[in-house]
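note to self: dont lose this again. the chain is below, predicted strucutre after it. 189 aa total, dont forget to put it in the shared folder this time
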Amino acid sequence: MAALKEWMLKQLDGNRKCFKNSNYKMMLIVFRTIFRRLKQRILIAQVNQPKIIILDNLAGLDPKERIRIRNIISKIAREKIVLFATHVVSDIEHIAKEVILMKNGKLLDHRSPLEFCKTIQGKVFELSIQEEELKKVQGEFLISNISQQANGLLVRILANQKPLQYQYIEAVANLEDVYLYYFSDEMKD
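---
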């Protein structure tokens, strides 16, 4: 997270002349994990009309408040650049037009969420298994989710090849799958 913030600030610093010459006010608001002032800061950002807003993650909010704040940010992002540093994939899945992936301070890739999901399509599967098969499946695949079903377990996996030894369906990739795929050493070919 610190590396991403550093990278963002360097990018902004390098473009400072562009912003100084524009007719627009520029104000950077860095939201920390102190959420009691989050709404106040968003209001300040709207009043001052900054071109760029930098946000830290929304961890710590209850689900209802998280959705409300996320919707406000989404509305603001239609007209402004919002840089959002987070590991909470569901937040960016609902807000972002473009996602930047960084690892160890280095830019890996940047695309739209849909384009990222397309890069791993055909590598996400859901298996219907019994409880006693779970340990074996965990040893063979990267697991992104385990759900209890009436007749066993539904296990979402990432794999470079189809899991032919199990009853499976190919699943539609989401950004959480993308995150696991790009940041897991288990997925390297």
